[in-house]
Amino acid sequence: MSMAATCHTEIAVRYFNTEGPVDPAEHYCIDPLSRVDLAEILTLIARKKYFVLHAPRQTGKTSTLLALQDRLNAEGKYSCLYANVEGGQAAGEDTARAMQALLGQLASRSRDILHDDFVDRVRAAYMQNEGPDGVLGEVLVRWSAASPKPLVLLIDEIDTLVGDTLISVLRQLRANYDRRPHHFPQSVILCGVRDVRDYQIYSSREGSHIQGGSAFNIKAESLRLGDFSEGEVHDLLAQHTAERGQAFEGRAAERIWDLTQGQPWLVNALAYEACFKGTANRDPTAAIGVEVIDQAKEALILSRVTHLHQLARTLREDRVRRVIEPLLVGTAPAGDPSEDDLDYVSDLGLIRRDGTVEIANPIYREVIPRQLTYSRERYIPHRTEWYVDAAGRLDVPKLLAGFQVYFRENVEHWVEHTEYKEAGPQLLLQAFLHRIVNGGGRVEREFGLGRGRTDLLILWPEGGDWDPTRVSKHVIECKVVRAGQGLDSVVRSGLEQTAAYMDRCGAKSGHLVIFDMRPGKSWDERVFRRDPESGGFPVTVWGM
Question: Cα–Cα distance between 377 and 385 in angstroms, integer?
Answer without folding.
Answer: 17
